[in-house]
Design goal:
CATH architecture: Distorted Sandwich
Number of helices: 2
Distance between the termini: 71 Å
Helix content: 10-25%
Oligomer: single chain
Shape: globular
Length: 195
């Protein structure tokens, strides 16, 4: 009888650890319009991405961007060294979504709905160097779109309508930042675009 109870307790412990590990690995979100680097890795368009190919939703780092948050050169990975491949500019050759200035829909996919402060969208300055990792100096100082969310939890898919700034040509990055209200973190997604 003791052996059966012991085996049952061990089994329950294994199940409990598995559930906890699964729930933490399946949480959070990413952008898929324009498609983010992490989604390009997850869908196999880009290879050699490491762990991010299995966890596109997990690019989480300190919030407070741009005053704080991930260090320069580590922004696309949210400062998370496990996903450093996202910060590699690949010689400026990440696949890019064609865009034009004007109205655009930005879409997030979520696997866990956190209470949300806001969503912010930044774009690189003209003349930035796409062959170097993303820095604050490469971005326009203010977001071109901010969507307040007042502590609400987003649905599994959420779209925002905004206006991509005019006067951009060539290759750029749109950085999307989802600021979580009830933790010290935010989620980061870099999307390569071509005007």
């Amino acid at each position: 009888m003791r052996k059966k109870i012991g085996a049952a307790l061990v089994g329950l412990g294994v199940i409990g650890v598995s559930v906890l590990a699964t729930s933490s690995a399946s949480s959070h979100g990413y952008t898929d319009s324009p498609i983010s680097r992490q989604k390009l890795c997850a869908n196999g368009t880009v290879t050699g991405c490491g762990d991010i190919q299995w966890e596109p939703q997990s690019v989480e780092g300190p919030k407070g961007f741009p005053a704080s948050g991930p260090a320069d050169g580590k922004i696309c990975a949210g400062g998370n060294s496990r996903f450093a491949q996202l910060d590699d500019p690949r010689g400026g050759q990440w696949p890019a979504t064609g865009v034009t200035a004007g109205a655009h829909t930005f879409r997030w996919q979520f696997t866990a709905a956190h209470a949300t402060t806001d969503f912010r969208y930044y774009i690189t300055r003209n003349g930035w160097d796409p062959s170097r990792p993303l820095t604050r100096a490469a971005l326009e100082t203010a977001p071109f779109l901010t969507v307040p969310y007042n502590g609400q939890r987003p649905p599994s898919t959420l779209s925002h309508s905004g206006t991509i700034p005019s006067g951009k040509t060539g290759r750029h990055i749109i950085l999307a930042v989802w600021t979580v209200a009830d933790t010290g973190n935010a989620f980061y997604a870099c999307s390569d675009v071509q005007f």
